[in-house]
Amino acid sequence: MSRKAAVVALTALAPISWGSTYFVTTEFLPPDRPLFTGLMRALPAGLLLLALTRKLPAGAWWGKAAALGALNIGAFFPLLFLAAYRLPGGVAAVVGSVGPLFVVGLAALFLGDRPTVKSLLTAITAAFGVSLVVLKAGAALDAVGVIAGLLSALSMSAGTVLTKRWGRPEGVGALALTGWQLTAGGLIILPIAFLIEGAPPAMNATNLAGYAYLAFGNTAVSYFLWFRGIERMSASSATLLGPLSPITAAVIGWAALGQALGPVQLAGMVIAFGATLVGQMGPRTPKKTEPFTSPEETPQEVSMDLKGGGVRR
After folding, report:
1. pTM value?
2. Tens of pLDDT along 31-62?
């Protein structure tokens, strides 16, 4: 396996893992606590990584870590949960699947990556495939839900591009940077969760096991692989791995929850997966991002809950 293929495969484990969140949430966690779930995913994972790496931001990186944590976690989770609860039938996944298009535009603005016909077509094709997988007949639109879904996609897209632009400080590994972002995002969600949802719910052993999986396997490990992959791939290639998440959720729903997979959904999987593969093909492997050293040298979830067979990130 080539180095590029290995990077893509490891990074792809992140959206594949996120595809299991819907199943774990519905089968293992207390109902109707999306913000608390987001909090339990982000903050314990972030604090664990801080304890393991024993590195804190310095100088301008306090602000940068807070900004990345807000975009990738703190704003992304609540907005995506809001969209998922107000948009039935998988519409939230379709709205969120415009993320690659946002990344193409933001990468052109902040990274100087000129959009190509291929990147635009693969992003559109992936969104179309996702819509076939998750969209149900008669699905209703809700203005607040659509806006929240678009903002969540924009938030994560901006976080992806800025993660690529800023890189990380010299001597700081991807694990520490992941811990900074998860901790910052969790601290942002903390007051929102308690203000809106109140005190934590009563939990049994099953709930605790579910939260442990989400916090450590589904979040700490997955976001580490995701941020590590962003360093080594182009922003558009990384974000085009996103369709693996609803595909995984649909497969788990079929295998574990007895949800039907018809010909249209199977065709959507093939289309979305094909667009994902095409999005990884390029004339050359992007150069690995160098550590951030100065302002002049910057080379570089929810969870999405789709009712009726969707995915949380």
Report:
1. 0.84
2. 888 899 999 999 999 999 999 999 999 999 99
Contact 106, 157 (CB under 8 A): yes
Q: Alpha-carbon torsion 223, 224, 225, 229, what sign?
A: positive
199 contacts: CB under 8 Å, gap ≥ 6: none
Number of neighbouring beta carbons within 10 Å of residue 1: 8
Interior angle at CA 235, CA 233 and CA 240, nearest 5 = 95
Residue type present at position 23: F
End-to-end Cα, the chain, rounded Å: 28
pLDDT tens per residue, range 113-139? 888 898 899 999 998 998 888 776 555
What is the C-alpha to C-alpha distance for residues 122 and 135, in angstroms, rounded to an integer? Answer: 19
Q: pLDDT tens digits for 208-266?
A: 999 999 999 999 999 999 999 999 999 889 999 998 988 888 888 888 878 788 898 89
In sequence order, which residues have a C-beta less than 8 Å from that of residue 9 and are 6 or more positions away? 1
Nearest residue to 96 via CA among 111, 110, 79, 108: 79
Yes or no: say if 222 and 178 are a contact pair by the CB < 8 Å rule: no
Task: Compute the distance between CA of residue 143 and CA of residue 21 in angstroms, rounded to an integer.
Answer: 25
Backbone phi, psi, residue 2, to 5°: -70, 165
